[in-house]
Design a protein that fits this description.
The complex is a heterodimer of chains A (about 140) and B (about 300).
Chain A: H1 2-11, E1 17-18, E2 31-47, E3 54-60, E4 66-72, H2 76-80, E5 94-102, E6 108-115, E7 121-123
Parallel strand pairs in A: 4-6
Antiparallel strand pairs in A: 1-2, 2-3, 2-5, 3-4, 5-6, 6-7
Chain B: H1 2-17, H2 31-40, E1 73-76, H3 104-112, H4 141-144, E2 150-154, E3 158-162, E4 169-173, E5 190-197, E6 200-206, E7 226-235, E8 238-246, E9 255-265, H5 279-294
Antiparallel strand pairs in B: 1-2, 1-9, 2-3, 3-4, 5-6, 6-7, 7-8, 8-9
The chains are: A mainly beta (about 140), B alpha+beta (about 300).
Chain lengths: ~140, ~300
């Protein structure tokens, strides 16, 4: 029972935490912006390029299978302003990634934060989403 | 195997039990550790294109006077130049005050343009934004989307404006010539500039290729578009840009797309980063993110 309990948490690598949605300039239509997950995994590739950088990493899902994630940031120019570089990651790095994910269930995300092996935290480009306009109550907009 | 699960589980239990934090604060890890890390971690260091640290100018210094008839320098609008929801002064966010005065033709043209952002956002594979195929942004979109550190070089006859995004440059003639009559359309059109006072240059641009969008939101334009840019040097270190759109085919009246967007002067040795739309890089991004993110289905 105890092991099942721990296993539940061990394999529940998805931790949903309500947060302020992201709004990156390449669109949010594919994303569930209301929820974030945190995943611990091993870097396989760091794509430092336009239009967006992509961190690829492997992490185990709730059945113990390795899932290959792709998580995007903004472009290198923007990320450089907050301390990201072409050498921020290398294959084999153990990282903890907090992100929003796509609605279709694919292992695709947009990064809110990454914790590096040395504990350093890199913040994703996070811009609060504008509230939806409510024509019934324009005074509150 | 079980050991692995237990170890991972403990990490995740800590994540679950950690207090919810604000947007600016980290969301995982024990609160005590967060505090310690926050206190110890230096602020992220920004670098220019040469890899040299960029230091912010002191805030309290007294403004220095602007030189007369001189816009030269490297100017950075910060986040104000990104325009992710369309032109900064009129973003397409659904608010009625940001609704543009479309003609029927303008409304129809707008409906054909499918942006991957704004309230009309479509999936990455469904957009027809010309920029995703690395077409030139053209004018005025160069001013309204992804406008970043911008270099302005003056000569006696012309002004060169060199943009970060796409490593694009354009010429503004200041030799007194008139705009051409019935010009062949170009991505960046034909621009002339006139000083209207010691610190304000007004640039008019016509002859623009109507394949481009006005902004990220897919606002359309025709071959009758006339763009007016007003560059006002506020003091030595600050420049404001206002952009007005006049296209009678698409809009019933002119509208302001940028309203005094503020630029900060960068040090003279500031090296601008390279930011280029590479078709091969874009294809790789679509393979990794854009295409799988657009696949239909639901978990």
């Amino acid at each position: 029972m105890k092991s099942n309990f721990l296993r539940f948490f061990a394999i529940a690598m998805v931790v949903s935490i309500l947060g302020v949605p992201l709004f990156a300039h390449h669109g949010n239509a594919a994303y569930d912006t209301e929820n974030r997950i945190t995943v611990k995994g091993t870097v396989t590739q760091w794509f430092w390029a336009n239009p967006h950088c992509v961190l690829q990493f492997d992490a185990k899902d709730d059945s113990g299978q390795v899932v290959h994630w792709g998580a995007e940031t903004e472009n290198p120019t923007t990320m450089t302003h907050t301390g990201w570089t072409k050498t921020s990651f290398k294959p084999g790095d153990e990282v903890t990634v907090t992100m929003i994910t796509v609605k279709n269930g694919k292992p695709i995300g947009r990064i809110a934060e990454v914790v590096l092996p040395n504990g350093q935290k890199l913040a994703g480009r996070v811009i609060p989403q504008l509230p939806a306009y409510n024509p019934e109550d324009p005074a509150k907009q | 195997m079980l050991k692995h699960f237990v170890a991972t589980g403990l990490v995740l239990v800590v994540c679950v039990l950690s207090p919810r934090t604000s947007q600016a604060a980290p969301q995982s890890g024990p609160a005590k550790d967060q505090k310690a890390t926050k206190a110890a971690a230096p602020a992220p260091e920004d670098h220019d294109g040469w890899g040299r640290p960029v230091t912010a100018a002191p805030k309290s210094q007294k403004p220095l006077p602007a030189p007369r008839h001189d816009l030269s320098g490297t100017w950075d609008p910060g986040d104000g130049g990104i325009g992710q929801l369309g032109s900064k002064a009129m973003p397409e966010d659904g608010r009625p005050e940001h609704r543009l005065p479309y003609t029927p033709a303008g409304q129809e043209a707008l409906s054909q343009n499918k942006p991957s952002n704004t309230i009309r956002s479509v999936l990455p594979t469904e957009t027809n934004d010309p920029v995703v195929t690395c077409d030139p942004q053209g004018m005025p979109r160069e001013d309204l989307y992804e406008m970043r550190a911008t270099q302005i070089v003056q000569t006696p006859l012309k002004i060169l404006i060199m943009y970060t995004f796409g490593k694009i440059w354009r010429v503004v003639w200041t030799d007194g010539r008139e705009l051409p009559k019935d010009p062949e359309p170009r991505w960046y059109g034909y621009s002339v500039g006139k000083w209207v006072d010691d610190y304000t240059l007004v640039v008019e641009t016509i002859g623009l290729d109507d394949r481009t969008w006005i902004d990220r939101a897919g606002r359309p334009h025709s071959d009758e578009l006339r763009v007016v840019e007003r560059y006002h040097r506020v003091d030595r270190d600050h420049l404001d840009l206002t952009v007005t759109i006049d296209d009678p085919k698409m809009y019933t009246k002119p509208w302001v797309a940028l309203d005094n967007l503020r630029f900060d002067l960068q040090p003279p040795d500031f090296d601008v980063r390279e930011m280029i739309c590479s078709p091969s890089e874009f294809a790789e991004y679509n393979k990794l993110i854009g295409n799988p993110a657009s696949e239909k289905g639901h978990k």
